[in-house]
Amino acid sequence: MRITVIGSGYVGTTTALVLASIGHEVIGYDVDSLKVEKLNKGILPFVEPGLELLLQELLEKQQITFTADRTVAITKSNILMIAVGTPSTSSGKADLTYLQQVMDVIAEQINEPKIVVTKSTVPLGTNRWMKQQLLEKVKTKNHSIEVISNPEFLREGKALHDSQFPSRTVIGGEDQEAIEKVRQLYTPLNTKFFVCNYETAELIKYASNGFLATKISFINEVARLADLIGADIEKVAIGMGMDPRISPHHLQAGLGYGGSCFPKDVDELLYFAHQNGIQLNLLEQAKQVNHSQIEWFLQKIESKLSLKGKRVLVLGLTFKEDTDDQRESPSIRLVEQLLNKGVDEVRVLDPTISSSAQIQWKNALPEHDKEKVNVITDKDNAPNGVHAILLTTPWPIFSNYPWNEWLSRTEEALIFDGRNYLNPDEMRSLGWHYEGIAKGN
Ligand SMILES: NC(=O)c1ccc[n+]([C@@H]2O[C@H](COP(=O)([O-])OP(=O)(O)OC[C@H]3O[C@@H](n4cnc5c(N)ncnc54)[C@H](O)[C@@H]3O)[C@@H](O)[C@H]2O)c1
């Protein structure tokens, strides 16, 4: 089949490549022409393991092409899959500006019957509204249009695997022919299909992310208790996860959830519920616990070291390993709080960051704080004179750092591991004062 995937970000590019790899002819469309140019040259504009190689193979086979031309994008395929961003606004409501732009382009360029597949995470009720809007917009053109909700569940860092082996493929819609067409699209993947109406599909996506966010907040709250009594939270999680009703996934205590999905999807769900007079107490608390986790971590640090006037090295700025995505990263909130506590310098070291231009969030800091945040690329000199090292992203490279040698370079041998990533016994035997998240006595 011929498919256009609209939006060539983390989701759009991964989806486009996987659909091309199973034999479809795919066009990736994005308004960002620089991104399109890179993709057509076989350069992935973001970090995601395995994707660049697949991109190069598929370009070679001419199974995929990328364009910034809206006419090509819309007229050449009868399946249009939307994967544009739906970021949060300050009220928590999802911003549908990009989605609306796409609907306008579809209406403007429509040349034949189309199936519009919504992969973007969109608020409850959006797909039905989209169908009405699109039908209204194209009514003079005499072309039929169907909308299918097909939410995406991939994880950044594991996007290729998750798209090739989806846990399920949810198809929400009301037209049997369109549902069948979308089902056929994915058949080579051997996935489990779950067909339902628009609203059910939309809520499956939001409820899944809300549940996973709650699970993370739950284990983080239990970690505070574990810390108090000297239990090892990792072992607690293993013991809990052995129960198949619980499962071990998303039970890693740390600095809280972040990224481009959980925070914004929790916010949208809370906003939607509030607008409709429903109180989602559990989700509100999950959000609150997540927010206070950084404060809890800072209290642990401050019980060993007064932060005012100190130099701190932060290892990791992305919200997780194997991605360059810094959206809603707990590390950034931690850096902001360190500055609020009056630290003199925060050095940040992340394998995906080589210049200050890559930490645009720094621009929002007060003027006197901006100069205190320094991107470090030279790992050998990174620890010189720092009073504490905070590990905030579990990048594998961090475990290979010369910790023995670093010991003599720091002002104080303090390491706080916000992800329970390093081996406490090894670090302590080297002479570090090591503290993880509730790692027991
Ligand atoms: N990132 C994830 O892990 C993930 C997982 C599941 C679902 N989602 C959802 O998928 C959607 C996309 O997320 P993402 O992380 O890939 O976003 P992204 O920001 O990485 O990519 C979005 C892309 O859309 C492009 N775009 C914006 N307006 C456009 C337009 N009018 N026409 C064409 N392209 C346009 C942007 O230039 C950008 O390249 C969001 O709704 C998100 O909630 C994301």
Write the layout of secondary structure elements.
Blueprint: E1 2-6, H1 10-21, E2 25-29, H2 33-40, H3 51-60, E3 64-67, H4 70-75, E4 79-82, H5 97-109, E5 114-118, H6 126-138, E6 145-149, H7 159-164, E7 169-172, H8 176-186, E8 193-196, H9 198-229, H10 233-241, H11 262-275, H12 281-302, E9 311-315, H13 330-340, E10 345-349, H14 367-370, E11 373-375, E12 388-391, H15 403-407, E13 414-417, H16 424-430, E14 433-435
Parallel strand pairs: 1-2, 1-4, 2-3, 4-5, 5-6, 7-8, 9-10, 9-12, 10-11, 12-13, 13-14
The chain binds nicotinamide-adenine-dinucleotide (NAD).
Descriptive overview:
The protein has three domains: 2-196, Rossmann fold, CATH 3.40.50.720; 205-287, N-(1-d-carboxylethyl)-l-norvaline Dehydrogenase, domain 2 (Orthogonal Bundle); 292-435, 3-Layer(aba) Sandwich (Rossmann fold), CATH 3.40.50.720. The strands form three sheets. Strands 3-2-1-4-5-6 form a six-stranded parallel beta sheet, with helices on both faces. The chain has a six-stranded parallel beta sheet with strand order 11-10-9-12-13-14. It has helices at residues 10-21, 33-40, 51-60, 70-75, 97-109, 126-138, 159-164, 176-186, 198-229, 233-241, 262-275, 281-302, 330-340, 367-370, 403-407, 424-430, and strands spanning 2-6, 25-29, 64-67, 79-82, 114-118, 145-149, 169-172, 193-196, 311-315, 345-349, 373-375, 388-391, 414-417, 433-435. The protein is α/β, with parallel strands linked by helices and 441 residues long. Nicotinamide-adenine-dinucleotide binds next to helix 1 and helix 5.
